Amino acid sequence: MDYHKLIYERGCPKIPENPIHCHPTNQNKLNVFDWLEDVPKLKNESKIVEIRFKNNRKGYYENQAKLRLDAGTVVAVESQKGHDIGIVSLTGPLVYSNMQKKGIDYHKDPLKKVYRYATDSDLAKWKDAMQKEKETLITSRRIIRDLGLRMKLADVEYQGDNTKATFYYIADERVDFRELIKVLADRFKIRIEMRQIGSRQEAGLVGGIGPCGRELCCSTFMHTFTSVNTQAARAQDLSLNMQKLTGMCGKLKCCLNHEVAVYEDARKQLPKTNKPLETEKGRAFFQKADVFKKILWYVYEDSYVLIPIPMEDVIKIMAINKEGKKVEQLEDFSVKTTDESPDFTTVLDQDLTRFDKKNKKRKRFSYKKNKNRNDRR
Fold first, then answer.
1. How crowded is residue 268: how many other Cβ atoms within 10 Å of its Cβ?
2. Residue 87, φ and ψ in degrees, nearest 5
3. How far is the CA of 151 from the CAs of 139, 168, 193, 195, in angstroms?
4. % helix / strand / coil in the chain, to the nearest 5?
5. pLDDT for 4-20, tens place per residue?
6. Has this prediction a pTM greater than 0.85?
């Protein structure tokens, strides 16, 4: 049995010695960095463990059998009407911290149990189940098309014991898939569960390269998705061009939320700009600001020229205006913000002019001249 390929499909590149252990140091977003790994652990370190499955699915299970579980161990866990196969992603005190963040109280709601290490028989069923997923996905899409349902099937996940299949679908409207479940159950002879996901989750499953040149955030490190609105773009002074702000999933990019907090903290240092600056030349109104360089742009009410002023000088002018006085003009406080255009030269300090030569005019093709030549021949 090719255990290497089996575990690689669930995020582990190799199995060094024992087939029930997978290498936990690969780049998989379901893996967790345990920064307390070298710290002496607690006695109940493996009482509750975090286990990951396919499609960003994670769960917390109780280790009643007191097995020695490390990150990367393949185990059989309790599931609805059967058992499932998963990979341990985290052990130790950080498990309780993650459970607290997600609002899971294991005292009130009992957790499911870890049965045993995954045996050769478990791995064989697991491999057989995974090999069916692609064929089931293609066949199910054909069935959905024949039934005329307005839904898109994104992925199929078989349970580890090969007794249940979860179908992840996308739909803009409510879909009545009762007939679909009957057809799928009769076709594959297995229990069916339909689970709806959003377009962001689909992009995380499919993956891809974003306009930044890197892999999509949703397919590399993001586990949960929060709502993104245009207010995040306004806070970063981005133009509301939906073509540039839209990601591969057709919605606003998740990365718009990554730096909003930094911009909001930087804006707290800026003075209030709701009042114009009073000068002898006239009133000047605020237009925009560079929150990191701490430069504010103002424009006179009868002009269109932007004047960049440092934040410290804006505060001074506001203090002078508060005393009932006016400054002479804002040009006295302006700073230079544009750099000189770079001189593009070669390594030998020669101008790149070989591409500036004008193209020679092409001779027009004359049908009559060529016809006369052929007649003479």
1. 8
2. -120, 130
3. 15, 10, 15, 12
4. 30, 20, 50
5. 445 444 544 334 344 44
6. no
Phi and psi at residue 173, in whole multiples of 5°? Answer: -120, 170
Structure token digits, residue 229 = 């609105």
Ordered structural domains, the chain, with CATH: 3-118 (no CATH), 126-197 (3.30.300), 203-264 (no CATH), 277-332 (no CATH)
Distance in angstroms (rounded) separating the CA atoms of residues 303 and 351: 39
Residues 309-349 pLDDT 10s: 999 999 999 999 999 899 988 888 888 765 555 554 544 44
What ranges in the chain are assigned the alpha helix state H? 3-8, 93-101, 120-147, 178-188, 199-206, 230-235, 242-245, 260-267, 311-322, 367-376
Where residue 48 falls (left for φ over 0; alpha for ψ -120 to 50; beta otherwise) is beta
Q: How far apart are CA 65 and CA 114, in angstroms?
A: 7
- Tell which residue, 205, 5, 129, 51, has the closest CA to residue 13: 5
